[in-house]
Amino acid sequence: MESTTLQDKIKYWTENEYFDPQTRQELLSITDPKELAERFCCDLAFGTAGIRGILGAGSNRLNIYWIRRVVQGLADTIKEAGQEAIQRGVVIAHDCRRYSREFARESALVLAANGIKAYLFDSLRPTPELSFAIRHLRTIAGIMITASHNPKEYNGCKVYWEDGGQVPPEQANRIVAKMEERGSWIVDTVSEEEARARGLLVAVGEEVDESYLAEIKKQLLNLPLARERGQNLCLVFTPLHGTGGRLVPQLLRDVGFTSLVVVEEQAVPDTEFSTVSVPNPEEPAAFDLALKYAQQNEGDLILATDPDADRLGVMVKDREGQYHKLTGNQIGVILLHYLLSQRQKQGRLPSDGIVMKSIVSTDLAAQVAAGFGVKLLDVLVGFKYIGEQIKRLEEEGTGTYLFGFEESHGYLAGTYARDKDAVQAAALVAEAALYYQEVEGKTLLDVLEEIYQTYGYYLDEQVAMSFPGLEGKEKINRLMANLRALDQNTIGGVPLVSQEDYWSGQGWRVEDEQEYPLSLPRSNLLRFSFQGGGYAMARPSGTEPKIRFYFCVRGETQQEARERLAAVKEEFLRLAGVNSL
Length: 581
Hints:
Elements: H1 6-15, H2 21-28, H3 33-40, E1 51-54, H4 64-81, H5 83-88, E2 90-94, H6 100-113, E3 118-121, H7 127-137, E4 141-145, E5 154-161, H8 169-182, H9 192-197, E6 201-204, H10 206-218, H11 223-229, E7 235-238, H12 244-255, E8 260-262, H13 288-297, E9 301-305, E10 312-317, E11 323-325, H14 328-345, E12 353-358, H15 364-371, E13 375-379, H16 383-396, E14 400-406, E15 410-413, H17 422-438, H18 444-455, E16 457-466, H19 469-484, E17 490-491, E18 494-501, E19 506-509, E20 515-517, E21 526-530, E22 534-540, E23 546-555, H20 558-576
Parallel strand pairs: 2-3, 2-4, 3-6, 7-8, 7-9, 12-13, 12-14
Antiparallel strand pairs: 1-5, 4-5, 9-10, 10-11, 14-15, 16-23, 17-18, 18-19, 18-21, 19-20, 21-22, 22-23
């Protein structure tokens, strides 16, 4: 049983033979009391996105014992749902990280010990394919072993429910409750041989790939153009050592983008991500090697997917041959404009169409959607909230989902999956670039400029700050407390229209000093909205020891927007107290 004192926890982990010798030795070799305290100060938290942490021994590290506990909690939840749920089984996929294959295999063996069938992918696969596979195989749940774009020291376990979305709060709370009911780290497994012999462990692979790619192709709007002229667009692609390395090139070439150059060094799965400092397409440095390839091959477009291929980064060549990295918001707005304009042109824009974005994503999206008469819905941060809304629309029959995105480079058109999909987004961006090049004689940068000229120059930026450890949590709490205490009518000289605290569920209008209730669920998020559009926001990360500040400002000209962005960012960070830490 897990004990309450630090020393009891350490004693339990180092003396109980349930923990393997390597784990016990790792802990016994630690001589720094602070390091030991950090490893056992608390337990990793299982939330609605699953569990994620730095790999290592201890209750505050991710390891095979945590994976077993989480999967056992899932198994107990499934068994509680009844025999039909048990028979449907669980599909499991994994990325390229340290221990990902081992964690995926162990997950299957825990399920087998509970009499629950596991469909285990034969090798690494993208997260969005796991979301698709749940619906395709009609399983009751899914498990994805990944830490997404986190540094190499991390891994994690995402749990999905039968609709293909990450577990909703009700199921997440049941899993946690089941873990707490057991109150023990000890979880039973069976051997792989026994699991296979009993029909409780089944390999899946290419058949699911084919069905998944077929569904993605249904979301493309100009397939005949791609097949006829796709070779005219030179693409450079890097999977950053991750799961996009096979399916993205396969999809692009299948639909006609045969002038494709893959960054060879980064096409190989690598647990150490040895050619990049951080495998995150949000970071400009992740494009360094791909940029060299693009310059050598005169590439028109650079596409980069993160290790589990749910986020897409893009660089575009301008008319002078220079490459420009698009923000996640800019990619989202370009795709939104492309999808809506093409649907309208083809007579395929439904009257009840709905698009969605996370609340920290650019306000420009609402203007673009309104320009096509399409409703836009804001949700909390996390693509699972978009997935939940897709499910709600289908159950209530209240609208047709068209597209959703997050500023953190996540995009999804269509409902074949319930998570962001960089495999699909890569093909959509390539198709959009080809259409504008071949039909309208424009680059994606030209299209973005036209959007700005129509709706105003919305510039956005995110500032992320890391504060690890217990002291870091206190610092993050202090920054949020400082911002909650603000009594401001302007930030950076830009007038405020409202201040909203999603933790308290209350908003406050500047004009009449009136409070009003917020409609979204509670979240540790603060939003300060500007007159005329834009915002400054703050949100601690739910999966990393970080706090993120989001900025979006509008100007009549690019210069005005740049000046406002600089002024807003400087004052907001000062008011938060960043300089005093």
